[in-house]
Amino acid sequence: MLVYTLLILVAGGLQVLAARVQVTWDVGYLNISRDGINTWRAIGANGQLPIPPIYVTQGDVLELTAINHLDKPLSLHTHGLFQRNSTYYDGTGMVTECGIPPNAQFTYIIETRDQCGTYWVHAHYEMEGVDGLRAALVILDQDTSLLDEYDEDVLLTLEDWGKEPYDDHIKQLQTIAEVDMPPNHPSVLINGINANILQPIRFTPGRRYRLRVVSMSFTYWFKVRLPGHTMQVIEADGISSHPSAVDGLDLCPGQRYSVIITAHKSLDYNYALNVTFYNDFIVEIPGATTLYHHVPIVYNDNAPVKTFPVIEDKDVKWADELVMEPRDEQVLLEPVDQHIVRSVKALTKDLGIPIYAFGNYSYAPVPVPPLLTALTTGNMALSPSVYAPQLNAIILQHNQIMELELRNPDSIIVHTYHSHGHAFQVVESGPVNKNSSVPVKRFKGRYPMRRDTITLALGQYVRVRIKADNPGVWYQHCHQEQHNYSGLAFTLVEAPDVMQRTLHVPSEMHEFCRILGHPTQGNSAGRVGSDMTGIEPPLAIHGHADSSDT
Questions:
Q1: To which H or E segment does residue 335 belong?
Q2: What is the pTM of this model?
Q3: Is the peptide bond before 50 cis (omega within 30 degrees of 0)?
């Protein structure tokens, strides 16, 4: 296991002039065994996996060049970055771009002046991210006073890693009668390496460590605890928070946390950082589903590892976005202009394979990326009629405040929600069924925490608020890639009139669409008005009918 550590030399040591940081990923296939068992054709960059993390300082401009040596289009998404005034660099295939064609290259320009914290980069065209194309991205804070809170910066990336390319995985799902269960359960990678081969993280007595934990997962959850130490959580998904003491972190696919851990003064014992790899909706198979790994925390090479009694999860104080408060103390967004409800719905097709929807239609890509529709249809861009129903488009006027209620009525399948272009305020959670014993929980304190990825628990809803202050088209989806692939997504079309005045899509993107055979203007079908001739009819789903879906 590689350990990525940044030593904080002096409080002002990271205060540098803004720079242009150039990173090139020559993306291609490579046969590799990352779990020490299975060798298969994965996707890497510059002939390697894992891909090294990217470090920049707030205010830098990251120029990320992707050279596509795959046999299909490619796009790169910087997970958690707002891409303010540059939605075309969001890197969502067939939403904000058509993709980079094979043997072409493109440079994503990523501004960091308004954000700092812990993020990651992954492919966002079909299943290329699942097959390996992912790496952590750390934006170091420009406010050097925060460096007084810790001495070293340690990165811990967590990945689920399959037994075969995801295309093969999907083919298996299409030929076996399993309900939403991967036929071959993945392995765990910690900092890109087989979690069964763990190198220690070394602690020096009295030093304070900022541990950045990144779930670069596409299906499974991770729980992280360090018994014998208190974690002070200071960040969730790139949003700095007031420090609060917790016992552990529970991360769904795509989430990130930073915690500060103060090392003990004694050298008498070593410890173990416990990483639990699990998924509540997978049928439990001992030794194959829930997996337990222990990262050695070494104070003294000759000391024993201290043991602790087993504590049930219900007795652990987990980091909780409804308890945390943002450091910038942003107040609750109000008044609400639109209250939107989106329910998870499912339709079971042949062999028990489900198709999903966030609302009434299962999401499906269309010939014209919705960003180009929003930019080329004039005043009609404010009308739902130019967006195919399967885009599930929500149209917001500039600076409107939306309260979005996300419901998961399912009693078996846990889901997630990831928002591109925004960190939403987490306002409330509670039971979908009002007769349930699950309590309603509202944010505590005066300032609701913000983040960009959240769990939708069984039979529960989550209410979040978003201000439409970032004109663009933003993909909203479940970050379990199998569910995303099966249609659990919708789009926010945010201030299209402002987009048309202010956004200028790079000319290469238009050319890439033409190379790949996609129109670059008009409605979703490349036509005028509501004429959707040539597009397959949307798949309507009424599995969890909810008349309040809007």
A1: none
A2: 0.94
A3: yes
Q: How would you class 363 by CB atoms within 10 Å of its CB: exposed for 0-12, middle for 13-18, buried for 19 or more? A: buried
- Residues ≥6 apart with Cβ < 8 Å to 315: none
Which token pair is 314? 């219900």
Residue ranges of the chain with per-residue pLDDT less than 70: 1-17, 172-184, 282-285, 287-289, 349-353, 543-550
Percent of the chain with pLDDT over 70: 90
CA dihedral angle for residue 444, residue 448, residue 454, residue 458, rounded to 10 degrees: 40
Name the DSSP class of 60. Answer: -
Q: Strands across the sheet with 105-111, in order?
A: 40-45, 20-32, 61-68, 105-111
Per the structure block, which two tokens stand in for 371? 């960003």
DSSP state of 549: -
C-beta separation of 473 from 494 below 8 A? yes
292: left (phi over 0), alpha (psi -120 to 50) or beta: beta
Rounded distance, CA 30 to CA 273, Å? 32
Give CA–CA dist 219/205, Å, rounded. 37
The CA distances from residue 376 to 99, 391, 496, in Å, are 19, 17, 10
User: What is the radius of gyration, based on Cα positions, of the chain?
Assistant: 23
Structure tokens at 469: 């202050």
Phi, psi of 335 (to 5 degrees): -80, 160
Instruction: Tell which residue, 337, 333, 373, has the closest CA to residue 532.
Output: 373
Tokens of 7: 């030593």
Can you give the pLDDT at residue 480? 93
Dist CA 74 CA 78 (whole Å): 14
Q: Dihedral through CA 231, CA 137, CA 292, CA 484, nearest 10?
A: 120
Task: Give the model's pLDDT for residue 17.
Answer: 60
DSSP H or E stretch at residue 55: strand 54-57
CB atoms within 10 A of CB 8: 19
pLDDT for 243-265, tens place per residue?
Answer: 999 999 999 999 999 999 999 99
**What's the pLDDT score for residue 145?**
73
| 488 vs 520: CA distance, rounded Å | 25
Determine the pLDDT at residue 11.
37
C-alpha 47/C-alpha 493 separation (Å) is 37
> Under 8 Å CB-to-CB from 240, ≥6 apart: which residues?
116, 117, 141, 146, 234, 326, 327, 328
The CA distance from 526 to 520, in Å, is: 7
Cβ-contact 213, 224 below 8 angstroms: yes
DSSP secondary structure letter of residue 318: B
DSSP result, 61-123: EEEEEEEE-SSS-B-EEEET---TT-GGGS--BTTTB--BPTT-EEEEEEE-TT--EEEEEEE
pLDDT value of position 198:
80
134: exposed, middle or buried (C-beta count within 10 Å: 0-12, 13-18, 19+)? buried
DSSP 473-533: EEEEE-SSHHHHHTT-EEEEEE-HHHHHHH----HHHHHHHHHTT---SSSTTSSSTT--T
- The amino acid that residue 17 corresponds to is L
pLDDT of residue 482: 87
Nearest to 257 by CA among 297, 296, 212: 212
